[in-house]
Amino acid sequence: KSGAPVPENFCLEDITLTPDLKDGEVLVRTLHLSVDPYMRCRMNEDTGADYLTPWQLSECVDGGGVGVVESSRCSTCTEGDVVTSFNWPWQTYAVMKGSVLQKVDPQLVDGRLSYFLGAIGITGLTALLGVREKGNVTKGANQTMVVSGAAGACGSIAGQIGRLDGCVRVVGICGSNDKCRALVEDLGFSAAINYRQEDVPSRLKECCPDGIDVYFDNVGGTISDTVIAQMNNGGHVILCGQISQYNKDVPYPPPLSEEIQETLRSKNISRERFMVLNYMNKADAALCELSQWVKSGQIKVLETVVNGIENMGG
């Protein structure tokens, strides 16, 4: 339950797929697989979330994936279709039920199919709907947003959405000078703080002279405590993730100290867990908006791409 994952937790196997498909089945060729922080929770017997099943020992692991249909015995999928799924096996080819696949339009992402797993997929939806549903960002309200895990797939999009939706300041917290530089120079953040090398409380005061109104929280722990301590009355915490806690044996979301709970109470700061799956009725419109922003260059996408399935566990 605790400890950091290491490459030795994974092994690569060659298998032979049966060429004969059953009714409703599809043979897919994998193009992109996504590696995400929530997967650490799936390495526990109890994932801490009803909607996440644990990975089973010695079984093929799965996650977000996108690929192309090679052959099909399913009425909704035809050869050549680009499809995606939350439960794509980590295989170069796989036989899947057509019912779990969602057909996607490559034009939405200008042919950059990996974006279906990030900026124009569940990650982008989490960022957009998290800001919209829990952030209470209002144009003209002179609001300041802080994003932790700001150079990650979700945080990097959330900060840009905060800026586009009307925040006058967006400050990112991340773990290297290169990431800080990318946030400010490439993504348009107002400022970035390297928590490994800088004094976070004093840098926050410097970067957020009018306090903090909206906090998009991806990490939890002491960084979040520091941000919440500097939030304004009536502020909003978007509780998206707690990656600093995922290698520890604690419940999700982890309990807060009495001091931080008192700050939330006395300043009337909302802090609600955000689960994007509860808002999927808004997904289609949100994906179109994200697509337009990415195509127009208003949202820039940070991606780390590693080639080869043999490197998935590394």
Q: Could you explain the architecture of this structure?
A:
- 24% of the residues lie in helices and 22% in strands.
- With 314 residues, it is α/β, with parallel strands linked by helices.
- Helix 1 packs across helix 2 and helix 1 packs across helix 7.
- It is globular, with a radius of gyration of 20 Å.
Shape: globular
Sequence stretches where pLDDT stays below 50 over 5 or more residues: 244-250
Spatial extent as radius of gyration: 20 Å
How are the strands of the biggest sheet laid out side by side? 8-7-6-9-10-11
User: Which series of helices and strands comes N to C?
Assistant: EEEEEHEHEHEHEHEHEH
Distance linking N and C termini: 19 Å
Number of strands: 11
Biggest pleated sheet: 6 strands, parallel
Instruction: Please state roughly what percent of the residues sit in beta strands, choosing from under 5%, 5-15%, 15-25%, 25-35%, 35-45% or over 45%.
Output: 15-25%
Helix-residue proportion: 10-25%
Number of helices: 7
Averaged pLDDT: 90
Structural class: alpha/beta
Name the features.
single chain; 314 residues; alpha/beta; 6-stranded parallel beta sheet; 5-stranded antiparallel beta sheet; 24% helix; globular
